[in-house]
Amino acid sequence: MLNGEGYRASLDDGRSVYIRGERIENMARYAPVAATIDRIARTYDRGYDPAPGATNPLLAAPRSAEEFRERLAQLHGEDLMLHVTYQSLMALLTAAGRIEQDFPEGAARVRAYVEDCRRRDVRMVQCITDSKGDRSRSAGAQTDPDQYLHVVERRDDGVVIRGAKLHISGAAIAHELMVMPTKRMKPGEEEYAVACGVAVNTPGVKIVSTMPDQPGDADPREFPLSWDRVLPEALIVFDDVFVPNERIFLDGHVASSAAFAHSLGLWERLSATGGQVRRAEQAVGLAQLIAEANGTERIPHIRDKVNDLVLHATLLRATFDAALVKSREDSDGILIPDELNTNAAKVLAGEGWAAVVARLVDIAGGSTMTAPSPLDFDHPDVAEHLDKYMSGVDGISGIYRARLFHLIKNMTADGFGGWLNVTTIHAGGGLYAQRLVMRKHFDMDSAKATALALLGGVNPVQAERAGAPAGGIAR
Ligand SMILES: Cc1cc2nc3c(=O)[nH]c(=O)nc-3n(C[C@H](O)[C@H](O)[C@H](O)COP(=O)(O)OP(=O)(O)OC[C@H]3O[C@@H](n4cnc5c(N)ncnc54)[C@H](O)[C@@H]3O)c2cc1C
């Protein structure tokens, strides 16, 4: 296994990372991501076991709904790279079961790769979103064939792939890229039906990263939520990258091409929603705390707005819990979260977040954006003034109230708040995709039967012919 130092050293592996027009030689020494790397290194140190063959127990598949719930809570408390790795490994194992019949050799390679990654204790990111060119055309119908990642050469010992994957969270500070088709491919699009594992430092992999707006010398008090949690995002170019056979999980099997995306979608949406449930609850707490500090918590419209937040958080928690409680074991004994509730929760979270932000900012007031920095509270010339003029009701200090505002700003209104706003909608696939999956898994036949029962068991075909319900409407 790796410890924190081992993780830092592992990032100096010749990978090609570019940020703001510069080639970054060693991400472990790149200041804007230093706090995040420290957090990841601490997670590595906590999980480190020098015994030969040891693996991190947090990366094992959960065996019960209770273990599932605890695992997600533990992962949310660690760093995002461990969490993304967990989702990736679970998605791979889920996909292995789903491609078993079509491509058993691919399923065996997936399982061997997962074991190898656990043993090497590496961090993995998810490369699914293609550049996609003209969205109204399928992969094979693009003018430029590289707009979806595809195989450009087959050799006895592997394949060569070309294309790009966009918005890849954490790639610059990970070890492995889990590459998969972004959606189902059709017959004739076999070259696009490719899934594989690629090491980040493989020749031809170019990681062009962006960082959320947070200065490298940020004070943790200014960015209480994001300080050591920002991740570099990346556009990754696969410029004719060779992938050896043992790392190829799917190659040309169009019938199974959606198995990986669907498996990842499920795990990614479940985890993302877990974070959004906590955030929705934190938003309730923040709204109540700032209302109490402002002396507005008993004003009827403020109470109503807090109640809106309570309702949203409660519905979200209930749907998320249902996704865990209704999880089922697959043929390999891995617990698979419930599709309907996972996707419904993700839609609720994604569509509801803008309203949460609006309520919270409305309740808090304009200092959300303009509260002086905690660093100003340290300056002897102004500290006393700031503590006096930023205070609220009797007994509430200026610095406490200012820190609530910094937290609200970090959650809703600065660079990280903006990242959350976009991510809540798009991560795990756009909301449209989740609505499609939700609809597919809803038991429409049962809903129709429930509705027809109101008609007293009338046969709909006869009723249509007769122009009236055959059995009459039950009263
Ligand atoms: C911060 C962040 C982190 C992310 N992390 C990752 C990651 O780690 N790995 C990864 O692979 N991806 C990641 N994503 C990508 C995310 O899954 C995509 O942004 C999302 O799937 C939307 O794709 P797109 O951005 O290409 O937008 P588009 O596909 O261009 O979608 C824009 C809109 O058009 C609609 N649309 C587009 N095409 C169609 C169509 N044919 N039919 C109907 N509607 C259509 C979409 O529903 C959406 O409403 C991340 C995104 C963000 C914002």
Automatic annotation (TrEMBL):
<protein>
    <submittedName>
        <fullName>4-hydroxyphenylacetate 3-hydroxylase N-terminal domain-containing protein</fullName>
    </submittedName>
</protein>
<dbReference type="InterPro" id="IPR046373">
    <property type="entry name" value="Acyl-CoA_Oxase/DH_mid-dom_sf"/>
</dbReference>
<feature type="domain" description="HpaB/PvcC/4-BUDH N-terminal">
    <location>
        <begin position="4"/>
        <end position="250"/>
    </location>
</feature>
<dbReference type="InterPro" id="IPR024719">
    <property type="entry name" value="HpaB/PvcC/4-BUDH_C"/>
</dbReference>
<feature type="domain" description="HpaB/PvcC/4-BUDH C-terminal">
    <location>
        <begin position="259"/>
        <end position="455"/>
    </location>
</feature>
<dbReference type="InterPro" id="IPR004925">
    <property type="entry name" value="HpaB/PvcC/4-BUDH"/>
</dbReference>
<dbReference type="InterPro" id="IPR036250">
    <property type="entry name" value="AcylCo_DH-like_C"/>
</dbReference>
<dbReference type="InterPro" id="IPR009100">
    <property type="entry name" value="AcylCoA_DH/oxidase_NM_dom_sf"/>
</dbReference>
<dbReference type="Pfam" id="PF11794">
    <property type="entry name" value="HpaB_N"/>
</dbReference>
<keyword id="KW-0285">Flavoprotein</keyword>
<dbReference type="Pfam" id="PF03241">
    <property type="entry name" value="HpaB"/>
</dbReference>
<dbReference type="InterPro" id="IPR024674">
    <property type="entry name" value="HpaB/PvcC/4-BUDH_N"/>
</dbReference>
<keyword id="KW-0274">FAD</keyword>
<keyword id="KW-0560">Oxidoreductase</keyword>
